[in-house]
Batch of 4 targets.
Target 1
Amino acid sequence: MKDAGLKNVDLYTDGACSGNPGAGGWGAILIFKGKEKEISGGERATTNNRMEIYAVIAGLKCLKERCNVRIYSDSAYTVNAFSKGWIYDWMKNGWKKADGKPVANVDLWQALYEKAGEHCVEFVKVKGHADNEYNNRCDALARAAIKKLEES
């Protein structure tokens, strides 16, 4: 739900992993009034899903004030957690899924819920590895972060 009094920011994110689990990377691009800021990073032992979620958290951490944020991700896992309301059900059920099993990546889901709550967010699912230049750039940032980890 957009707030007319807030700045509008687009946040593109992607995560990647070399092996799953394995070395992982994430990339994000924030766009405000035509200006772009790229960020990226990685972890030596992680999963693709963790990197997808972390990319959104990292992007939201860059914002210095409450904003309207449209978050673009090719991760159905990340987008659907909010757009289909899974995260609210998980919280209500003590971070357990409908089948009673614990939700994976609870630490990141809790952090993302907290950061998203600081803004007016909208999640948009984009097709991965297609013609979205920003999604492709985020993928390149994530893969470069993995390469840097593997070379060090």
Target 2
Amino acid sequence: MVRRSFDAARRHIRHAGGLTLRRLGLLVDGQPNGLGHDRALLGGSLRGSVLVHFANPPRALYQLRQWYRPLEELHRAHGVTVVTRDSRAAAAIRAESSLPVITIAYHSTLDDLLSRSHVQLVLYVNFFSENFEMLRFSSMQHAALWHGDSDKSVSVSNQVKAFDVNLVPGQAAIDRLAAHLPGFDAESRCVIVGRPQVVGALAHARAPGDRIRVLYAPTWEGGHPSADYGSLESHGAGIVSSLLTSPRIALTYRPHPFSGLRRASFGTADADLRALVKAAASRDRTAGHRVSLGGSLGDDFASADLLITDISSVATDWLATGRPLLVTTPSSPSTVVASTRLLETVPRLPVSALVGLCELVIREVEEDPSAAARASLAEYYLHSTDPAESMARFLAECSRLIALNTHLHPTSKKAHDGGH
């Protein structure tokens, strides 16, 4: 009895301390603050048929932001509520979109809300561990949207098996999963919807005499050594320093929001590159060098003539532009690099090739020798470069899943989960 009382007291102190840290904003970076409005939400219900579960802190909002427009269209058709576990993320979503947002701290509150709601479909933009609390509810369809498709090793994950369906951009994702997850029926558990987020990127024309606009958008260091695709430490200084010396090139540097999350040295490298670009922009304000922070990736795509990036979903999405692309070669021996159609088609950029980078960039833009091959890649990875077609496919699949769940669970308002 004494032991149980001691354990209960210890849990209470730990919870109280955690709550204090959350309120003071002193949580470790990457942790949701869990400051919800649970008391006010109890006894209520959610409007609409769709719930988007986003449990991450604000640093991961780039994963959801790209889905704002498709989700707003879906909200008009079926009603969407975004459920967060972080009040800071919720505030940002409210400010940036028209989507209804609530913040929940306790799973019991979510259980209470869903018992009186008619949610038929739950959407997820990542594989964050907190999602698996939501996946417990068995009376609704669970669909993974992903936040981009890439040739990274982490794109082949057993976590896809947790969802009823995965809404993927193109055939490349299905082929990748089928090849590397033999216990997963990729053809039946994946539906191609394209990338409705890729908007505005096709409308671009460089006037004669204009500088070539290069977008350098590296990925982060990855969550583990085999996914260390980021080029900040190995290539970053060489790429930026070289491009800033050319009077024919204007550089946009777009850092990944997670840079430095696992390795502090990546954060230092990012800060150094930002300083280099800002200094060059100050020296020559007509050159057009800039650091892009927080804005739309689509806007950066629309203004760029060539992209330099790492093995990432940025490379895949760029295919919709039809413009030249250079993909860095990872320098870490622990990084897993697959043989893929994209990596076999576009020019690769090892550290050893940085000496002649400016000449390579100019040649790729002016001659573009791999243009035809990239056109077929766009269809394979993205299905269509027409945003309207992708939007229609996305909305149609969500409607199908809602109708399917309504048929499978006509009384889903009752017995809405699989028990504790």
Target 3
Amino acid sequence: MKFRVTKSDIVQAVQNVSRAVSTKATLPALEGILIKAYDNTLTLSGYDLELGITTTVEASVEKEGEIVVGAKIFSDIVRKLPEEILSFETDEKMIIYINSGKVDYQIVGISSVEYPDIPTFDTLDEIKISAKVLRDMIKHTIYAVSDNIAKPIYTGSLFEVTPEELKIIAIDGYRMAICSEKITCDSNTRFIVPGKMQSEILKLIGDDEKEVTLSVGQRHVNFSVENYSVNSRLIEGTFLDYNTTIPKGDATKLKVNTRELMSAVERMSLLTSERVQSPVRFSILKDSIKLSCKTAVGRATDEIPVDTIGDEVVIGFNNKYIIEALRNTECDEVNVILNGGLSPMIIKPLEGDSFLFLVVPMRLNDEI
């Protein structure tokens, strides 16, 4: 194999596919990047048996072939090379010769036959969506994806597709995030996408209006983002019927300034830590929210003005869950709905239903 390639192109490609490379694998090839050089195109792949990322880069290929090279050493080398045009060549002993100006490297590669195939599958549904829309939907829900592997079904988000709408739902047992957007497609399907895959998609999507194509199979899904292909196994199992968890009433309803409430909760949070935990108490009155927090460190109080419709209520929340929900609204003001001191808080936009965030309260045991 012998080819020449532009440094900026290969550095970016190596950086992105490396995120799917296993760092501790029983199979040495999985700690590497598969490079294929054919038809003046390089195809680079990283795969950890769960997530696969593949991309293509233009190159001047003199001799076709393929090889696996250690991801970390290869990434470090190409980033540090001085010239913009890089030359690569391999021999029958799987030695890779890398040249840039007066710099030469020789590193040991692995035969491509030892690299497992990234799964291919029959596409049952294909959904096209604006890259920006998909990015925003994932960004606003991924915070509620669980990291508890004891319940793997919730380490991903439910994608619920109809011909008119896409919904993404994430639940971790303490909070729920739902985002909805209008789309036009021919599909009517549901599937659960791992949180890890969604994190990688966020890193690949730019700030433009290009389309992302989702190809859904029986057990796998593929996201095509510009010249990147991201492949993952779907999470199998029965996702919670999320509609039944949303309280139906609105005994207490208030419009709040998102930044004011978030700042007040952050001030209460100064008394808490991973080791010292205590709920932030919300006393919701007709014209204000009084916030308080008491821990072994000390106590704090604050108050912000609001207009409340309905019942006054006292309720407690984990400060982190409230802050993350408010931050991900990306709205100046939101509607907050409560149904007593033990029912989850609902956070919605002032108009429409583009998102719905739900936060489960904590029991309050003392008074301040």
Target 4
Amino acid sequence: MEDKNYYELLEVPSTASPEEITAAKNALAKKYHPDANLKDGIDTTEQMQAILEAYAVLSDPVKRSDYDRKIAGRKSVMQTFDLHEAENEPEAAEPVFVTYWKASNSLYDIIVESDELIRMKNQAAKLGQLAMQALKHIIILRQSEIPERYWHPDIMNWLLFTWLKNRNYTAAYLVAMYDDYLKKEFKGLEKLRMQNKALHYQRSVKKLLKY
């Protein structure tokens, strides 16, 4: 199980709802609980620990969001698209969607750093430098015609994976699909939390550009 990610451990897709994740954990816990297997002389302690570790992350919205972003660039998640190959393709009339995805991740790293500096004093010079670095990524994202409220890496990850299934999807169609996904899969406070996170990020981008 060491080579599997948390979604693979729980045998659920990366788009699984909280209810599906809990149900998967419960089903696997019955199967791998040490007490249920000791009578057969099988030690499933390691498997059970891995299942609980995966569930602890995927059942927590904040931890899951961070984990999704960390695995976004892993080869196991990106098997259907070779980033290195894409970088060496002849320049096309429009950059492939992965260019926008990479720009969003680079911008996110800059925004995380700028948010910390904004809370400090006398950092205007450094923030000005970060604003210039951010601008080149913002220009790329604006070329994508993806509205700013979708620039957060969590959303861009979803858009990228969906685009990989059909590279004829336009940016407008992808964001419409995401809105439909958000509406169907998330309710109440969880949906509001995700929307607020995207809005807060959008505001952070605008705040940095003032420098």
